[in-house]
Specification:
Layout: E1 5-9, H1 15-26, E2 30-33, E3 44-50, E4 53-60, E5 63-66, E6 70-75, H2 89-108, E7 113-115, H3 118-124, H4 127-136, E8 144-147, H5 150-158, E9 163-166, E10 172-175, E11 178-181, E12 185-187, E13 201-205, E14 209-218, E15 223-229, H6 233-237, E16 247-250, H7 255-268, E17 272-280, E18 285-290, H8 297-303, H9 307-315
Parallel strand pairs: 1-2, 1-6, 6-7
Antiparallel strand pairs: 3-4, 4-5, 8-13, 9-12, 9-13, 10-11, 14-15, 14-17, 15-16, 17-18
Helix pairs in contact: 1-9
Organism: Actinomadura miaoliensis
Protein name: ATP-grasp ribosomal peptide maturase
InterPro entries: MvdD-like_ATPgrasp (IPR048936)
Length: about 325
């Protein structure tokens, strides 16, 4: 049997996945969605182990797919499983773990292309690993300190013309019934107190950027870059604070930066990376982070950049 299907393990109305699905459909590729939030109420699976691996069929609200029909998987921010309301908390925890490791092991045993492999994605979420890998791959990375020592934090912040605090992972917090974003926040020495000792904190030199660039690179050699500009000082510090002030345009990527993007993907075993850079007036591209699951659909909408086509090419084995 010829494997001719791309499986999208992602929420059914995910904007990025919808673009990728359309790009695949234009190529005549069969696309099957498996929203993990459908399981077990709206989807089921049965698998038998053979000499060459698992032979499985998944049934979803949109039809059935055999895993031996799958040639590639687009894996992006799957939703939590949706278990029956009547389960006790211990039963729910048990069901969650069994489903997670059952589906995870089943899918990751497939000899297919991944964009990107769940194990590699999990590793690539660690910001300190991102920063160390970026430095080794030749990116310019702002001076940084990761510490729970208030004295070291004060020393670092005091030795810079400007410094910022960044969360290493949790960019969302829930407080007083409200969900809040943790933005990149300028700090001075007076803001550093003994609360730093309670956990690790990441402080970084504040790059005096003229604008941001978000780059989408693939392991197949594609590079798409969108410049993001704002006249608002807060949005220039962190563009998430002022989407209404932003302007966008497609931009070129310096050869050294493009080579470093591909070296980074290779080093972490990724097939897709969404890189954020701060560009200064002297033309330096400073690496900020690489979110393998970060958003790009709105940039394609704003500029027409063929980002989904690059990902579709990668899923179907077409090099840039």
């Amino acid at each position: 049997m010829v494997a001719d299907t791309v499986l999208l393990t992602v929420e059914r109305d995910d904007g990025e996945a919808l673009y990728v699905s359309d790009a695949l459909a234009r190529r005549g590729v069969r696309v099957v969605w498996f929203d993990t939030g459908w399981f077990p109420a709206r989807a089921d699976v049965s698998a038998r182990l053979g000499r060459d691996g698992w032979h499985a069929e998944i049934t979803t609200p949109e039809g059935a797919v055999r895993l031996d029909e799958v040639m590639a998987v687009y894996y992006r921010q799957p939703r939590p499983f949706c278990f029956p309301v009547g389960l006790s908390e211990p039963e729910r925890r048990f069901a969650t773990v069994e489903a997670r490791f059952g589906f995870g092991g089943l899918f990751m045993s497939l000899p297919v292309r991944w964009v990107s492999h769940p194990g590699r994605l999990a590793d690539a979420e660690y910001r300190p690993l991102q920063m160390a890998t970026a430095a080794r791959c030749g990116f310019a990375v702002p001076a940084s300190v990761l510490t729970n020592r208030p004295g070291d934090a004060r020393e670092f912040v005091g030795s810079r013309h400007g410094a910022v605090y960044k969360a290493t992972m949790h960019k969302l917090i829930s407080e007083a019934g409200q969900v809040k974003l943790i933005y990149t926040t300028p700090v001075d020495v007076a803001a550093i107190d003994d609360r730093v000792a309670t956990t690790l904190h990441l402080f970084q030199a504040n790059v005096p950027k003229s604008h941001d660039v978000r780059v989408v690179a693939t392991g197949a050699g594609h590079v798409q870059a969108i410049a993001i500009r704002s006249d608002d000082p807060a949005a220039r510090q962190d563009f998430r604070t002022g989407y209404g002030t932003l302007t966008y345009h497609i931009t070129g990527v310096p050869g050294g930066v493009a080579r470093s993007c591909h070296a980074y993907l290779k080093a972490l075993g990724l097939q897709l990376g969404v890189f954020d850079f701060a560009v200064t007036d002297d033309g330096t591209w400073w690496f900020l982070e690489c979110g393998p699951g970060s958003q790009w659909a709105w940039l394609q909408e704003e500029t027409g950049a063929p980002i989904a086509d690059a990902i579709a090419d990668t899923l179907t084995g077409v090099s840039a």
